[in-house]
Amino acid sequence: MKKTGTYQFASKPSIVSTAVSVGPLEKVSPFHPHFDFIYEDERIGQETNEKGHSQLIEDTCNMAVTKGGFQLQDIDLLLAGDLVNEMTPTNFAARQLATPFMGMFSACATSVSSLITASFFLETKLMDKVMFGAASQHNAVERQFRYPIEYGAQKPPTGQWTVTGGGYGILSHHQTGKPYVHSATIGQVMDCECTDPLDMGSAMAPAAFDTIQKHLAQNKGTSYDFVMTGDLGKNGFSILQELIKSSGVSSYLVDNYRDAGAEFYGNEEKFLSGASGAGCSATVYYGPIYAELLAGKWKKILLVATGALLSPLSFQQGETIPCIAHAVELSME
Amino acid sequence: MIVSVIIAFIVGGLVCVIGQLLFDVAKLTPAHTLSLMVVIGSVLDGFGLYEPFIDFAGAGATIPITSFGNSLTHGALQEAEKHGFIGVLTGMFEVTSSGISAAIIFGVIAAILFKSKGKVS
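Above: the input entities. Below: the C-alpha cells describing the complete assembly.
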C-alpha cells in the first residue's frame, strides 16, 4: 500500500513557548494583538533588508526562549528556514544564536515542516527542546522572486504580498495545559502545470487539497474546530473550497476552512489576494492561533502550510511551479 | 494643434494598450514586453515605417519605448551611410546616447537620495 505520510505522535509533544514578530505594515492585520513585537522599521534597524531579515529571526528566536523561561543553551536543536537564496538570513541568525542548527526548506510550508520534524526528534526522546519556525522579509524576498523593489512593478489581483515577520516555537515533552502535536501528514509535491508566479495560490491549492484529504482520511470521525491553510490567498483559497466541495471531503466533519494568507491583511484591497511568504503561516499559527489554543478557545485544529517550490531561474526557464503542503494536527486537552 | 494633441493621446494610449495586453493576455513579463516593444520599433524603422508614424502621431509615437528601438536603427543606418559597416556600431548609440545617459544619471541620483521599499498597489 502506498504510504500516506501520516503519523501519530504517541508522546504528544507540547509547544511550550512561541514568539512572533512582524514588520510595520503588518500592523493593519486583524491578528496584530497577538504579535509579540512589531518593528517600526521594515529593515529592522539594519543597513540592508537581508541583515534586517536575519536580525528579525535572531530577535524572535531569543524571544521564544525568554518567554518560555529557558536559556539558549537549553535548546537541543534549531530547525528553521526562510526563502532567501541559500537561506542566509536563517543561517546568519543561527550563527548568533549558537545552538545546534539544521536549516529546513519547504518554501512557505517551512513553518509546519520544521514542527513536524521537531515532533519526530521529540518522539525519540533523544532531545528535550527543539526550536522550530520560519520567517520572511518583504523586500528581501520580493526582489529575489519577483522584481527589483526600485522597479515598483504592478501586480495583478491574484498577486500576494510577502509578509515581513517570523514565528518560532519550542517543542518539548508533553505538558498538560499546553497545545500538543497529535499527528502530522507529510505532503508530496504536486504540480498542476501552473506557470504564473503572480498566482501562486492557484498553483498551491491542489497540494493543500491532497494533504488535507490524506490527513482527514486517516483521522475519520475526528471533529476539528477548523482546518487552516497557509498562504493560498483569497484566490487560491476559493479554488481549494471548490475542490473540497466537489469531492465531498467535508463529510469528514470539517465545515470550517480558513486560510492564514487570505485573513492576514483583513479586507485591505491594496494587498490584493492576501499575504504570502514563509512568515505568513508562521506568524499566524504560532501567534494568534497558538494563543487561542492556549486560552482554550480551540480543542483540535489542522494547520496545513503551503509552499510553492519555484526558483527565479526555474521560472525563467519556463518550468511549471511544483507545490507542497504539510499538515500538523494540534490538540489542547 | 488641438487635433494633433488628441491624435498623440489616442495613438500613444493604443501603444500602451498593446503593452498591457502583452502582460495580461500573452502573460509576458515586464522585461519581455519592454524588449519586444523596442524590437518592434526597431524593425518598423528598418522598413522605413516609423518616420511616417511619427509624422502622423507625433508624441504618441516618440514617447512610448518603441521610439527607442526606432532611434537605435535610425542612428545605425545614418552612420552606416557615412562610414560603412563600422557606422552600424558607432551609430546605434549616437542618437540614443542622451536617453541612456539620462537614465543612468537620474537613476544614480534617485538611488543616492532615496531608499527603496515595497510598493503597496
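Note for the figure: Chain B touches chain A at residues 24, 27, 30, 110-111, 116-121 (CB under 8 Å).
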